[in-house]
Amino acid sequence: MQHTRYEGRKFEETTIEFKPIFQGKIISLQVDTVRLPNGGTSTREIVKHPGAVAVLALTEDGRMLVVEQYRKALEKSQVEIPAGKLDSGEDPMDAARRELEEETGYQCGSIRLLHSFYTSPGFADEIVHLYLAENLTKGEVNPDEDEFLEIEAITLEEAQRYMAEWRISDAKTITAVYAWQVYQLTGRI
């Protein structure tokens, strides 16, 4: 089935002024003054992000690979599926393969896009491309120098328990768990 992206322009806001506030290593922040559909004006604080990938990696014995790491913004450790930001000009599928191998040491024999979604469209343009990776082969873990991870292969029941305990509480991993559940029930995603 061929999908086309909806380019909705209903209620479009026109940028009158753009004011850069911050340019970081990963994100930038800007404040736009916009003309509203009714002719009025307002301001929008916008976080710009290069996009990211996330990988639902399933082992031959029916487990999902996850990594636990500390998330400073939340001031706690999180259990998440392997994920990371896109490098400039990088193909998302190549990035998904790279992140899977860097964070877990696994390579995949097959990989396919499940869906792409915006994380917080009210203030950010970050898009996450969620992939399903199967036919995994164990290799060497090679995390970024500032990444400290613990890898685990969990069952669907363990994933659901982690969600109930808030060990898994991010949108990409919760989405992956629900996709995995559908996959187990129907054989399709």
From TrEMBL:
<keyword id="KW-0378">Hydrolase</keyword>
<protein>
    <submittedName>
        <fullName>ADP-ribose pyrophosphatase</fullName>
    </submittedName>
</protein>
<dbReference type="Pfam" id="PF00293">
    <property type="entry name" value="NUDIX"/>
</dbReference>
<dbReference type="InterPro" id="IPR020084">
    <property type="entry name" value="NUDIX_hydrolase_CS"/>
</dbReference>
<dbReference type="InterPro" id="IPR000086">
    <property type="entry name" value="NUDIX_hydrolase_dom"/>
</dbReference>
<dbReference type="GO" id="GO:0005829">
    <property type="term" value="C:cytosol"/>
</dbReference>
<dbReference type="GO" id="GO:0016787">
    <property type="term" value="F:hydrolase activity"/>
</dbReference>
<dbReference type="GO" id="GO:0019693">
    <property type="term" value="P:ribose phosphate metabolic process"/>
</dbReference>
<feature type="domain" description="Nudix hydrolase">
    <location>
        <begin position="47"/>
        <end position="183"/>
    </location>
</feature>
<dbReference type="GO" id="GO:0006753">
    <property type="term" value="P:nucleoside phosphate metabolic process"/>
</dbReference>
<dbReference type="InterPro" id="IPR015797">
    <property type="entry name" value="NUDIX_hydrolase-like_dom_sf"/>
</dbReference>
